[in-house]
């Protein structure tokens, strides 16, 4: 909502590139009754949003990946976007060597969230068996291994031996994936981060300090689509 000294009456604008609705009010006007105005013009707003998003598709598309590459688990696929402006939801299906996203793909944030769901599904399929194999190599037995899409933690381990992993780990090189999982596996022996824990992790990952530095750098270089949020304006 914006107040304009030059405006003589209320007006609606659909802003590029993503179709946000701007309400322009003359100075001194009340926003009372605005909901009714928006409902009365809902069809016009939806039509104009579709037009604007399609016209500015090239501005939005670069935010979306053209390939999905999960280096540690050997997954690599081309991403194709089947834009359906009138669709109300996204669908993803896999074919040999490609992932096809169908839906209103001009909505870059919505498409990003759909890709995040796909990342989470792949994480739940690929990360637990990978972690179990790594645990067996070090003579450790984890409890339940869950996978979520977390924003601030790569992983965690409860005192009951249950491990939670971040689906975003699939985007990391194998050395960093192994480092994070070994960090959580070490908590199966030691809950805290004291000297015994650090010594065990050093035995499992001799390059611990360097890998920790690389992991911090990786957090800052995650692609934009995986950082999109549902509550983002």
Explained architecture:
This protein has 233 residues and is an alpha/beta fold. It has helices at residues 34-40, 42-55, 57-60, 108-137, 174-186, 195-204, 208-220, 224-227, and strands at residues 2-4, 11-15, 20-26, 67-70, 75-83, 91-95, 98-103, 145-148, 155-157, 163-166. A 4-stranded mixed β-sheet has the order 4-5-7-6, with helices on one face. It has a 3-stranded mixed β-sheet with strand order 1-3-2. The chain has a 3-stranded mixed β-sheet with strand order 8-10-9, covered by helices on one side. A hairpin with a 4-residue loop joins strand 2 and strand 3. Helix 5 runs antiparallel to helix 6. The two termini are 13 Å apart. The relative contact order is 0.10.
- Percent of residues in helices: 40-55%
Largest sheet: 4 strands, mixed
Label the structural class. alpha/beta
Q: What is the N-to-C order of secondary-structure elements (H for helix, E for strand)?
A: EEEHHHEEEEHEEEHHHH
Share of β-strand residues: 15-25%
How far apart lie the N and C ends? 13 Å
Poorly predicted regions: none
Strand order of the largest sheet: 4-5-7-6
